[in-house]
Design goal:
Blueprint (H helix, E strand, L loop, with lengths): L2 H22 L2 H20 L1
Length: 47
Amino acid sequence: MTNTVAAWMAGLILLGCGADMVLNDGQVLFFLALKLVDLMEWMAFWR
C-alpha cells in the first residue's frame, strides 16, 4: 500500500466518521464499537 492510498483511505474514514457525527449523532460509531466489543469477547472465549 502506497502512502497516497493510505492517505486517501484515512481521509475517507475520517470523512465517514465526521458525517456520522453530524448526521446521526454518532449512533453508527457507537453501534460498531459495541459490535467490536462483542467480537473481542467472543474471540477471548475461543482463546
